[in-house]
Amino acid sequence: MALIALIGVFVSLYLTLYKLGYVGTLACGTGSCEKVQLSKWGDFLGQPVAAWGVGYYLLVFAVGRWCLGSAAMTVVLFGLAVWDSRVERRL
């Protein structure tokens, strides 16, 4: 879980850097990433959505490392997943 969260950190950091103008061109496998990044849905509470993703994935990474191999990890990560799905439904 920690490894997957770390990958998420790097992907969302890349998207955040693009949104802030530090990366010139997005390299996406499918779709039109630029269109989504530059749309009105690209920001939430004044911050790029990808920046929120960086924070979320860092939290999941920290929890995954902290609870490595324990039953508490399952409960905490389940709570984070439920919270994430509720936030996405509101958007």
User: How many domain regions?
Assistant: 1
Helix content: 55-70%
Note the beta-strand portion.
under 5%
Q: Give the overall form.
A: elongated
Q: Low-confidence stretches at least 5 residues in length (pLDDT < 50)?
A: none
Strand order of the largest sheet: 1-2
Number of strand segments: 2
What is the SS-derived class?
A: mainly alpha
Strand/helix succession: HHEEHH
Number of helical segments with 4 or more residues:
4
Average pLDDT confidence is 78
Structural Rg = 15 Å
- How many strands, which pairing sense, and closed or not: the largest β-sheet? 2 strands, antiparallel
Give the N-terminus to C-terminus distance in angstroms.
Answer: 25 Å
Keywords:
single chain, 91 residues, mainly alpha, two-stranded antiparallel ribbon, 4 helices, 4% strand
Descriptive account of the structure:
The protein is mostly helical. The chain has one domain (2-90). It has helices at 2-19, 33-37, 49-66, 71-90, and strands at residues 43-44, 47-48. Strands 1-2 form a two-stranded antiparallel ribbon. A hairpin with a 2-residue loop joins strand 1 and strand 2. Helix 1 packs antiparallel against helix 3 and helix 3 packs antiparallel against helix 4 (71-90). The longest helix has 20 residues, at 71-90. It is elongated.
